[in-house]
Specification:
The chain has twelve helices and 20 strands. It is α+β, with helices and mostly antiparallel strands and 554 residues long. A hairpin with a 4-residue loop joins strand 9 and strand 10.
């Protein structure tokens, strides 16, 4: 067996592709770990709230504690429609329906749908049946509180954040029996994707009012828009015991979630953006999911019971985040919410790499050049390790004529060929595995950088130079993939040729395969590989020339 560096490079390349496939498979079909029952998740009879029925989005499905105010529609998958309340801040454009006071449309004004469509904001929330993703909320109080089927009366139908103002309040009113009046109030702030939701309960009756606030997402599962890039879309539950637990659509279809958690949050993720219901951190909250017809999926949280004495007024509330996965901002909104920027198993490496990339961008002002500089810095950090690999390859290349002579001498006798090669390596003091460890050590860093470039919303629609106007999309003219293929071919010319003809053919095809493969990757990722390959060529050429010069002088 010939342990040459050519085989190592081939195995690395194939291993990298297999790793990406494995991660995607794990996200879709991997085994789910059992959920441990902990003290905070187990409700003891003494401390538990009264049993409740989880609210659902299907009209008529609520039990005794929830009475929908609107009758079921003929199409159970269709949303009931009322009047619209339009709300606009400097970063959000919302449409609230008077049925339930639901947030049914939410456009991100500073995030265009595409780089070549700067006037079309990205629709994070959408009530179109094939793209359904809405935020619903309500009160579990029987007929004494509005759920997400109740009809509200808005105080006005258009709201806009005034110039110089930092806050905007949107108020919808509901009247119940026995003098109970409830206002649903959304509070939005300038430059913020966090929305505060309050229920102002005035109990005009002669009895105590009891109820629970809930917030939920209702969503359909959309097909992955890319066949080459996989990112997670689905639910995430955060608890003190598990900061980031994926609740996939398949999980919701298999079994309804029912969990009591102290604090936590419930989120719906997609590439670059997230919606999250964030209840009070100190309360014992009930998290749930349900699969509906359509198929549609509901994922949400019910907060602890509140009591309002007769003649009194109280405010019950929660928070909703709906916006981009900006890590610094997410850390301020809720503990562990920054983990929705999913770097996978290599988060411990990816987060420092992102911090460094962001700092470089702050200095140079261009994400493309930040990638170039970061790649250079990583290459410098591993210079000595890479040099050991290239010295081994250079020495192997120097031995190629003698290896060819051995092959001619022993022909098909592989055992004698291997023995002769090992004797040659021993005589020349060459370790054919000398370049393996330095390269293996670098692989986790390179894969972590891959996920940073793939997951960071900061690189979405970031331009570089000339024709590269979106580093998160493929190169429109495929120039970078072709350059990457060319650099791989040059690296092959500088490396020793495999003695095995089959390996030689595979190595010849590999640059073509990778060029086609990376043609559909985001330009930022391909830019990294082009720069990394170019720097590797320069280092490899310098070391090879130096070793050959020493050998020729002997």
């Amino acid at each position: 067996m010939n342990f040459d560096n050519k085989r190592l490079i081939l195995l690395m390349a194939l291993g990298f592709v297999l790793l990406l496939i494995w991660q995607a498979w794990q996200q879709d079909y991997g085994s789910k770990p059992p959920v441990a029952t902990t003290a905070t998740e187990t409700v003891t009879p003494a401390a538990s709230p009264q049993p409740i029925d989880v609210p659902t989005a299907k009209p008529g499905a609520a039990a005794t504690t929830t009475t929908p105010a609107a009758a079921p529609t003929a199409d159970k998958s269709a949303l009931q429609q009322g009047d619209w309340v339009h709300v606009k801040t400097d970063v959000l454009d919302l449409a609230i329906n008077t049925v339930g006071g639901d947030l049914r449309r939410l456009n991100l004004l500073t995030y265009p749908i595409a780089a070549d469509k700067p006037d079309q904001p990205f629709p994070l929330l959408n009530d179109a049946p094939d793209k359904l993703f809405i935020a619903q909320s309500g009160l579990l109080a029987g007929d004494k509180g509005p759920d997400h089927h109740a009809v509200f009366t808005p105080e006005q139908t258009n709201y806009q954040l005034a110039p110089g103002a930092n806050e905007l309040k949107v108020r919808l009113n509901w009247s119940g029996p026995d003098g109970i009046k409830i206002s649903k109030v959304y509070t939005l702030r300038r430059a913020s994707y966090e929305i505060k939701l309050d229920y102002e309960v005035h109990n005009g009756s002669s009895q105590e009012w009891r109820g629970r606030v809930y917030g939920q997402f209702q969503r359909v599962e959309e097909a992955n828009p890319s066949y080459f890039i996989y990112t997670y879309t689905g639910g995430v539950l955060s608890s003190p015991e598990n900061k980031y637990e994926k609740i996939k659509f398949g999980d919701m279809a298999d079994k309804d979630l029912s969990r009591e958690v102290r604090g936590g949050w419930a989120a719906m993720l997609q590439h670059y953006f997230v919606g999250a219901w964030i209840p009070d951190a100190g309360g014992l909250n009930h998290y749930y999911s349900k699969a509906l017809e359509g198929p549609r999926y509901v994922f949400g949280v019910v907060m602890p019971e509140a009591v309002v004495a007769p003649g009194q007024t109280a405010t019950l509330g929660t928070r909703l985040y709906a916006g981009p996965k900006l890590q610094d901002h997410l850390q301020e909104v809720a503990p562990s919410l920054e983990l929705t920027v999913d770097y996978g198993l290599l988060t411990i490496l990816a987060q420092p790499i992102f911090w460094l990339l962001k700092y470089i961008h702050h200095v140079v002002g261009n994400w493309g050049w930040a990638i170039v500089i970061l790649t250079l810095m990583i290459k410098l950090a591993f210079y000595r390790l890479s040099a050991a690999s290239y010295r081994s390859m250079a020495n192997m290349r120097r031995m190629q004529p003698r290896i060819a002579a051995l092959k001619e001498r022993y022909g098909e006798d592989r055992q004698k060929m291997s023995q002769a090669m090992m004797e040659l390596y021993k005589t020349e003091k060459i370790n054919p595995l000398g370049g393996c460890l330095p390269v293996v050590v670098q692989i986790p860093v390179f894969i972590a950088l891959y996920w940073v470039l793939l997951e960071s919303v900061e690189l979405r629609q970031a331009d570089f130079v000339l024709w590269i106007y979106d580093l998160s999309s493929k190169d429109p003219y495929y120039v970078l993939p072709l350059l990457m293929g060319a650099t791989m071919l040059i690296q092959q010319k500088l490396s020793p040729a495999p003695p095995d003809p089959v390996q030689a053919k595979v190595m010849t095809i590999l640059p073509i395969v990778f060029t086609l493969f990376f043609a559909f990757f985001p330009a930022g990722l391909v830019l990294y590989w082009v720069v990394n390959n170019t720097l590797s060529i320069a280092q490899q050429w310098y070391i090879t020339r130096k070793i050959e010069a020493v050998a020729s002088s002997k």
